[in-house]
Design a protein that fits this description.
By secondary structure, the chain is mainly alpha-helical. It folds into 3 domains: 260 residues, no CATH class; 112 residues, no CATH class; 93 residues, no CATH class. It is built from 25 helices and 7 strands. A hairpin with a 2-residue loop joins strand 5 and strand 6. Helix 9 packs antiparallel against helix 10, helix 10 runs antiparallel to helix 11 and helix 10 packs parallel to helix 12. It starts with 15 loop residues before the first helix and ends with a strand.
């Protein structure tokens, strides 16, 4: 027997304007007014900026002002560079690059919504018919589940920071949601067309962060076909179509790059080498990483998703559990088999977990839902109050201890009152109290009531951080001030700088100070910019010898918020 009994009153869909507003409130803060932050965010922006202001070779061989970066794939960087090309004159290069981030987020949100909607309106997902009628219609049931899945997705802690960065990870999670949607459509109606569209998603994923993840997810797609009454020869044909379309999409980059050899380089070997480095035998370190990070990274999706598997265990082969569970299993195996587990790999699990969590909500008891609501109200309201307290303390100096602790993180920073940021933060806080009052006073019976406070509260916290404390974060995580110091010390007529600095630093210095770093085809330079640590003693420092030439120190400095990192600028002695 199905574990769900639900009246039609519980399937009232969230108003479309409210869903759209939540999406904008989620994605826009953290993109507007934010500098490129160390590390991956600034490095990815550097590739996009180099492409937008470079030649065709930069589009085929990704690099950061001459520092080669052929590892992951160029698709996310192409989108950012196109955003700079099309909107940079109006929005600026930094915000123009983030147009692609907004589009990627919208693609992921829509794909997740429609994947859940199509699974929710299937006959095997419908709740039991009530004795006197009044059960929801399939489309209404699907819409309610889709709203709940999207709210859970927006409430996941792991998605929050990564979805606001100009990195391939932000595009990868959205394309995973797209592949999940195409998988749902294929298992609903197996056809050559749906297989080809699934191949398109596989190809785009491959161009984003390598072939390992999409190929494994594609195999899980066809593993789901065992629940379909489909001849084996037809499944093989559809698999071939998926591979053909996916390969054709990837060839749009690799074929011209191999034939034209940008900067006399062929990216295939470097790209394939990076892909193979993402796979190894499972290790105890990867297991510890998954459970240590996953507990908060997948919150609040994973408890509901686990409950969904348990609640629907007696219903064999239901696709609303089988399809997302197949994606979760593949993502888990890829994480455990990663030699150096990272949070970016965990993002693949978020869309399928959100889908399963929505179906888990169907069977959660009212008492548990009320407990989740009260926990969300208390915890998130307290977090918001703490943020307001520390912000007031930085401006007024009271409470003294709070002000001292906050300013200790950004030494040398002078807080100022930004009226626009203050008004936005105040409006968001008032909106939070209105939402809480609506939830407590009306006690709505709709399915998504259990997660609307969690998602709304997380959005509130993010808005407060990205308005009240955005200047502090920019000061502590940006290299703009150091870049300006270096630019002021450059001798007239400087045309080339050799350096050992990292990718994020190189991108920031090239953008903010227009430093002319040595290109992919290295030139002989008269200036040298070194990066090392202030902890190194004089007798252990990097000796300023480079290619057998003596160098003279011109400048030394660092970011005020970083006590370890140090930069030094040298000129050839001759």
């Amino acid at each position: 027997m199905k574990p769900v009994r639900l009246p039609a009153a519980a399937t009232l869909a969230l108003p479309r304007w409210a869903l759209f507003a939540l999406g904008l409130l989620y994605i826009l803060p953290g993109l507007i007014g934010r500098d490129p932050w160390k590390n991956d965010d600034a490095a990815s922006f550097g590739i996009m900026w180099t492409m937008a202001h470079g030649t065709w070779q930069d589009w085929l061989w990704p690099n950061i002002s001459g520092l080669s970066w052929p590892d992951e794939g160029p698709l996310a960087f192409w989108l950012g560079a196109l955003g700079i090309k099309l909107t940079g004159w109006l929005l600026g290069d930094v915000l123009g690059a983030r147009v692609g981030t907004v589009l990627a987020f919208l693609l992921g949100a829509l794909s997740l919504w429609y994947a859940t909607f199509n699974l929710g309106r299937r006959q095997d997902a419908q709740p039991l018919r009530l004795a006197f009628g009044g059960q929801p219609e399939p489309d209404d049931f699907g819409r309610t589940l889709a709203d709940a899945a999207l709210l859970i997705y927006l409430g996941c802690l792991g998605l929050l920071l990564h979805s606001h960065e100009t990195t391939p990870e932000a595009l990868q999670v959205s394309l995973t949601a797209l592949l999940l949607y195409r998988t749902v459509r294929y298992v609903e109606k197996p056809s050559l067309r749906n297989a080809a569209l699934s191949g398109l998603a596989v190809g785009l994923l491959t161009l984003t962060r390598g072939w390992l993840t999409p190929v494994c997810l594609m195999l899980s797609l066809f593993a789901c076909t065992r629940f379909l009454a489909q001849p084996a020869i037809r499944a093989v044909r559809d698999l071939g179509a998926t591979l053909a379309v996916g390969g054709a999409v990837v060839a749009l980059w690799l074929l011209p790059a191999q034939l034209l050899e940008p900067y006399h380089q062929q990216p295939l070997n470097a790209w394939m080498g990076w892909n193979w480095l993402q796979l190894d035998w499972p290790s105890w370190a990867s297991v510890k990483f998954f459970f240590r990070v996953g507990l908060w990274f997948f919150w609040p999706a994973w408890p509901f998703a686990a409950w969904a598997v348990w609640a629907w265990r007696r219903q064999r082969g239901v696709l609303h559990i089988v399809v997302p569970l197949a994606f979760v299993v593949v993502g888990l195996l890829l994480t455990l088999c990663h030699p150096q587990p990272e949070q970016g790999q965990l993002l693949v699990l978020l869309p399928p977990l959100a889908v399963m969590a929505a179906f888990g909500l169907l069977t959660v008891k009212r008492g548990a839902i009320n407990a989740i609501d009260w926990f969300s109200v208390m915890a998130l309201t307290m977090c918001a109050a703490v943020i307001w307290l520390f912000w007031i303390a930085t401006l007024t100096g009271w409470p003294e201890k709070a002000a001292r602790n906050a300013l200790k993180l950004v030494p040398g920073f002078t807080p100022e009152l930004g009226w626009i940021a203050f008004i936005v933060a105040l409006a968001a806080t008032l909106g939070w109290f209105v939402l809480v009052y609506w939830r407590i006073s009306r006690q709505p019976a709709v399915l998504w009531r259990a997660v609307v406070l969690s998602s709304g509260g997380l959005i509130l916290i993010w808005i407060l951080l990205m308005t009240l404390f955005l200047p502090d974060f920019n000061y502590g995580k940006s290299y703009a001030s150091v870049a300006q110091q270096i630019a002021a010390k450059l001798p007239p007529g400087t045309h080339c700088i050799e350096s050992n600095i990292g990718a994020a630093q190189r991108a920031s210095f090239a953008y903010y100070a227009r430093l002319p770093f040595a290109g992919v085809e290295t030139d002989r330079c008269d200036l040298l910019l070194l990066q090392d640590s202030t902890k190194l003693r004089d007798d252990r420092e990097i000796v300023p010898q480079y290619r057998g030439k003596q160098w003279v120190l011109l400048w030394e400095g660092r970011r005020a918020a970083d006590r370890d990192e140090r930069f030094r600028l040298y000129r050839r002695a001759n």
